[in-house]
């Protein structure tokens, strides 16, 4: 029996393989990975075999220790190999599933239309690749050539040239790989210079007898001016801002019954100038470009002294005869008109005409800072003339006309959330050649549409839909865009993620400004750090702005009334932005004149029109990529907490004056706190949620998309007060009106109206509280303790 045992333990022929697989303990139990064997060894074996057996066991034990060390090393190596393989497979799998785009564009894949199987030719494209693709396909030469083509002739709304351009743009969209192209038509009432009678200006005597006619260009006019005649002395009102009229009242200048002479600019539109003059009791307004604001130069780069600047004077947007309603041809409304239509005539005049009139004025000297640079003019306020009894008579004969408008649309459908839209748009019409007013925006719009269409052919699959729109009747106050908003307002706040206006995007090449809803402000930083400044090669827009004192204060600006983006936010509740390159401290002088040509713009830019237009296209394209591919929309819902906090601070400073009148700001504080908490809670919930959960992602995005809409006051009429946004809008319900009224508590307590203030405070408080409640989500998440 000894030999079989020896053979088994020593690995002799016939037993070696099994011996390496197990160790026998207790005299014959062998554990094999394949089987368990038991062998019996007799206790009475020969003595001669014991020594050899002991030696063999010792050798076997030593060998087992070596084998165990080898096995441990092998197992460690195999474990490392398995871990590395699993990690790499998991990483690739995670990257394939991840849709969230971080601050630096955490490489986000695009939805594959073939579904999760990632069919051949599909697969994953990351954000870095999309950025490279965008830059690769954008073409600066196409932007320049389109500007020249669009601005080759005057093309106002309703003209044969305007209709031909609309057809050309529609055909351009149809040639691209778009999912849909269509036309949205409206009938709107527009105002044009009368063909039968020219607008006129005279110097008259005390009896109204016409002494001298001052000739005006028949093409110069203010759309939506009141018609008829006005006569009176002339008062120089600087920029016709509210503070300018306040100053004139303090100085005791007679405003009632006079004609205002106002400068272009000052940060207020023509409509606001006319409104302020009307409120002051004046009977008419003349508006001129002062050389101090708009350079005059007989050469190509300056404005001639005999050129006037035209602009509409409707204090609003859209068709003023269907305020708050869409002007579709199947709708019939009783006679009505916008409260923003002026009741006094307005007319643009040249610097030469203004110089002729202002040089004859007598009266009090102008306040400091009001002096312009008109030749031969000593700055006095009027209203009297050096010849006693002399006055000015103005006559405006513009006529209203119903016109068919055509907005041209093209779209690329989103593959995951096609019912959410990122919209890009530009005004198409112009009273003159309109290189800046219409050509630049149209060129960038068409180039972005071509670029995204080309990207689509190369593997680009947007998560959300892209809309490209050419708007009609922009010169009359964004009529085409506003009528479309009015027609689809009930659905847009659930579908429109953001709007980018491309109007007047290039007026220089020095400084970038972003007139924007605060919700979109954070998007700008990611874009400007990736785009080179068109005037400083090798430097990003962000790095250059930071060297000049902080990029946010320099670049981010509030929306303004005549912006193509304004009505989207203030009327429609859609976050909107308008980008613009311009010259620091210098105005492009040719907008809204017959001199706004591609040649002059190119000369001003020293041949860099295509480069600057390309920079705008890249900026908009990069922000659109973020919005169309991030699973969670990258909009800053906390931004409005700051505005409410400023009001709370102001109320706190005036707490003593308020308490005397029995007024308490406590509910404003409460509403501000509720909104701030709701916004932060939503942000935290998003951070702690699996964003691959489509249901939760959809719920969060719905709440984020509606934030702007929450701030449209539900307590005022969209017909009487179309700009209902309490922070960006216009009217008694707005935060600006509330704070102006509040300031009277110290500056002029007698003018403070307690009943009016209570109403303003209540409207703002409940709008803010409503926004907080809606942002909280479901009704059971709203925390309003007693």
Automatic annotation (TrEMBL):
GO terms for biological process: endocytic iron import into cell; transferrin transport. It is found in: Cell membrane; Melanosome. This is Transferrin receptor protein 1. Residues 407-588 form the Peptidase M28 domain. Residues 667-775 form the Transferrin receptor-like dimerisation domain. SUPFAM superfamilies: PA domain (SSF52025), Transferrin receptor-like dimerisation domain (SSF47672), Zn-dependent exopeptidases (SSF53187). Gene3D superfamilies: 3.50.30.30, Transferrin receptor-like, dimerisation domain, Zn peptidases. The keyword Transmembrane helix applies. One of its GO terms (molecular function) is transferrin receptor activity. Keywords: Cell membrane, Disulfide bond, Endocytosis, Glycoprotein, Lipoprotein, Membrane, Palmitate, Phosphoprotein, Receptor, Signal-anchor, Transmembrane, Transmembrane helix. Its main location: membrane. It is a single-pass type II membrane protein. Residues 233-296 form the PA domain. Pfam families: PA (PF02225), Peptidase_M28 (PF04389), TFR_dimer (PF04253). Belongs to the peptidase M28 family. M28B subfamily. InterPro entries: PA_dom_sf (IPR046450), PA_domain (IPR003137), Peptidase_M28 (IPR007484), Peptidase_M28B (IPR039373), TFR-like_dimer_dom (IPR007365), TFR-like_dimer_dom_sf (IPR036757), TfR1/2_PA (IPR037324). One of its GO terms (cellular component) is external side of plasma membrane. Residues 9-29 are annotated as: Disordered.
């Amino acid at each position: 029996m000894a030999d079989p045992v020896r053979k088994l333990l020593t690995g002799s022929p016939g037993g070696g393989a099994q011996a390496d697989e197990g160790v026998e303990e207790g005299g014959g139990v062998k554990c094999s990975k394949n089987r368990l064997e038991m062998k019996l060894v007799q206790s009475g074996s020969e003595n001669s075999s014991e020594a050899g057996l002991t030696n063999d066991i010792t050798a076997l034990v030593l060998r087992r220790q070596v084998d165990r060390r080898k096995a441990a090393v092998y197992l460690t190596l195999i474990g490392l190999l398995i871990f590395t393989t699993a990690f790499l497979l998991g990483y690739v799998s995670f990257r394939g599933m991840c849709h969230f785009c971080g601050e630096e564009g955490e490489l986000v894949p695009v939805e594959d239309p073939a579904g999760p199987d990632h069919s051949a030719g599909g697969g994953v494209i990351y954000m870095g690749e999309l950025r490279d693709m965008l830059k690769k396909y954008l073409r600066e030469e196409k932007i320049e050539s389109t500007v020249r083509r669009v601005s080759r002739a005057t093309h106002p709304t309703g003209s044969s040239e305007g209709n031909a351009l609309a057809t050309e743009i529609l055909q351009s969209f149809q040639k691209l790989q778009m999912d849909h192209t269509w036309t949205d038509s409206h009938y709107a009432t527009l105002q044009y210079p009368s063909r039968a009678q020219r607008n006129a200006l005279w110097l008259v005597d005390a009896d109204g007898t016409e002494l001298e006619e001052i000739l005006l260009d028949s093409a110069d006019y203010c759309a939506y001016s009141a018609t008829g005649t006005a006569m009176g002395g002339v008062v120089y009102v600087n920029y016709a801002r509210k503070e300018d009229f306040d100053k004139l009242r303090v100085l005791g200048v007679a405003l009632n019954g006079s004609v205002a002479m106002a400068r272009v600019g000052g940060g207020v539109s023509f409509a606001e100038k006319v409104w302020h003059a009307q409120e002051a009791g004046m009977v008419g307004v003349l508006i001129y470009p002062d050389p101090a604001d708009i350079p005059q130069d007989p050469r190509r780069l300056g404005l001639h002294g005999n050129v006037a600047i035209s602009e509409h004077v409707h204090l609003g947007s859209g068709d003023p005869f269907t305020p708050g309603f869409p002007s579709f041809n199947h709708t019939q409304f009783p006679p009505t008109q916008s409260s923003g239509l002026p009741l006094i005539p307005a007319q643009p005049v040249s610097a030469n005409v203004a110089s002729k009139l202002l040089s004859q004025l007598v009266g009090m000297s102008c306040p400091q800072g009001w002096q312009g640079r008109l030749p031969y003019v000593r700055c006095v306020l009027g209203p009297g003339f050096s010849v006693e009894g002399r006055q000015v008579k103005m006559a405006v004969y513009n006529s209203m006309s119903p016109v068919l408008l055509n907005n041209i649309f093209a779209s690329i459908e989103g593959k995951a959330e096609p019912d959410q839209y990122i919209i890009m748009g530009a005004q198409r019409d112009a009273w003159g050649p309109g290189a800046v007013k219409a050509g630049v925006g149209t060129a960038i719009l068409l180039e972005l549409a071509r670029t995204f269409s080309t990207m689509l052919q190369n593997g680009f699959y947007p998560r959300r839909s892209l809309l490209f729109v050419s708007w009609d009747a922009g010169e009359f106050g964004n009529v085409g865009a506003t009528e479309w908003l009015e027609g689809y307002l009930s659905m847009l706040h659930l579908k429109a993620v953001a709007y980018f206006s491309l109007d007047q995007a290039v007026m220089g090449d020095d400084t970038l400004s972003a007139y924007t809803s605060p919700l979109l402000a954070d998007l700008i930083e990611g874009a400007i750090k990736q785009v080179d400044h068109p005037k400083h090669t090798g430097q990003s827009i962000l790095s250059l702005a930071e060297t000049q004192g902080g990029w946010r204060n320099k670049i981010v600006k509030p929306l303004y009334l005549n912006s193509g983006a304004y009505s989207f936010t203030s009327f429609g509740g859609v976050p909107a932005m308008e980008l613009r390159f311009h010259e620091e401290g210098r105005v492009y002088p040719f907008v809204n004149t017959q001199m706004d040509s591609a040649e002059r713009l190119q000369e001003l830019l020293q041949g860099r029109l295509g480069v600057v237009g390309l920079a705008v296209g890249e900026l908009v394209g990069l922000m659109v990529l973020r919005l169309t591919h991030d699973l969670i929309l990258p909009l800053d819902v906390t931004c409005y907490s700051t505005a409410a906090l400023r009001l709370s601070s102001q109320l706190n400073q005036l707490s003593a004056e308020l308490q005397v009148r029995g007024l308490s700001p406590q509910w404003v504080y409460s509403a501000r706190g509720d909104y701030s908490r709701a916004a932060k809670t939503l942000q935290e919930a998003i951070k702690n949620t699996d964003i691959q959960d489509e249901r939760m992602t959809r719920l969060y995005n719905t709440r984020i998309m509606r934030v702007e809409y929450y701030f449209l006051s539900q307590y005022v009429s969209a017909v009487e007060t179309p700009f209902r946004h309490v922070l960006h809008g216009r009217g008694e319900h707005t935060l600006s009106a509330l704070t102006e009224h509040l300031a009277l508590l110290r500056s002029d307590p007698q003018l403070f109206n307690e009943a009016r203030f209570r109403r303003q405070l209540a409207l703002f408080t409940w709008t803010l509280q409503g926004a907080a409640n809606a942002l909280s989500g479901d009704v059971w998440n709203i925390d309003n303790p007693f």
